[in-house]
Amino acid sequence: MIASAQFTIISLCDVVTSDTPPENPYEGQLWVDTSVTPPETKIWDGNEWAVQNDIETIRTTISILTEKDAQFQQTIDGLNSYVATLTETVETVSNDQGVLEERVLNSERRVSELEHTVDGLSVTMQEQYIGGINYVQNSSGLNGITDDWGYSGTVKTDASTDTQNNTISDSCFVLGAYSSLSQYIRGVVPGTYTISVRAKKTSTMSGYFYVTYNGNKTKYLFNKSTAFDWTDYSVTLTDVTDPTLRIYCYCRDASIYLADIMISEGAIPRKWTPAPN
C-alpha cells in the first residue's frame, strides 16, 4: 500500500513593482505600474488590470487576501489529519511496514515544511500589506513641486543619471542654500508608523530632516553637518495618536537631495511606492 501526494503553494502576498505586467497573474494580485507618471496601483480582476487609486479599495483587497491565507491554513490542517490517518493504516500492515513507515515520516516532514511556509506567508502579509500604503503625496518629485508641499528658498526636482542610478523612483527633490521643504499628512489613524527617505548631502553645513507628531513631538531621520552620499534613513513612531503628521527638511548650504520619501503603517521601512491619488 503506497500513498503519495504533491502540493504546490502559490504566495498570495506578492505586490509587483515594475513597468510591465506580472506574468500569470491571479485574481486580486496588486501591481504598481511604473511605466506611467505618476506610477499607478492596479489589481487583476480576472480579465484585465484595473486601476485602483482608492485606499479603502486596496484595504478591502488586502482583507480578501488575508482570508485566503486563513483558508490555506485550514488546508494544511487537513493535511495533518490525512497524515495521522495514513499512519494508523500503516500500523495495520505487516508486509513492507518499514518502507511504508519511512514514506509516512517523509510525508510528515513535508507537512511540517508546509506549516512553516504558511507561517512565513502570514508574516509576509503582516509586514508587506498592513501599512504598505504611502501617505506622502508626490513623495519623490515625479510631478514637480506641487501644492502638496510647502517650501522656502530654492527647491527643484532632479532626474539626472546619478539620481536614476540611486533611487527607486528615478526622481528627487533638491534643496539649495537656506531652503526648506515640508508636507502635512492628515487623517492618519492611531498606531505605529515608519518614515523613511533616501538622501544625499553635498555640503558640510547643517542640514536635517524630521517628523513632528502628536502635536509637539519630534524625531529626526538625520541631523548632520557633514556631507554624505546616497543613504537610507528611517525612524519608527510607536505611539501616534494625533491624526496629523508633518515632515520637514532644512538645508543651510547647497545641496540636499531627497528621494523615495515614505510614510507607512508598521514598524519596518517599506520599499518605496507612490501614494494612491
* CA radius of gyration: 25 Å
Helix content: 25-40%
How many domain units?
2
- Basic shape: elongated
Keyphrases for this structure?
alpha+beta; Jelly Rolls; 5-stranded antiparallel sheet; 277 residues
Q: Can you summarize this structure?
A:
It is built from three helices and 14 strands.
Describe the protein:
A five-stranded antiparallel β-sheet has the order 5-8-13-10-11, with no helix packed on it. Strands 6-7-14-9-12 form a five-stranded antiparallel β-sheet, with no helix packed on it. It is about 25% helix and about 35% strand. Strand 2 and strand 3 form a beta hairpin. The chain contains three helices and 14 strands. The chain has two domains: about 110 residues, no CATH class; about 120 residues, Sandwich (Jelly Rolls). It is α+β, with helices and mostly antiparallel strands and about 280 residues long.
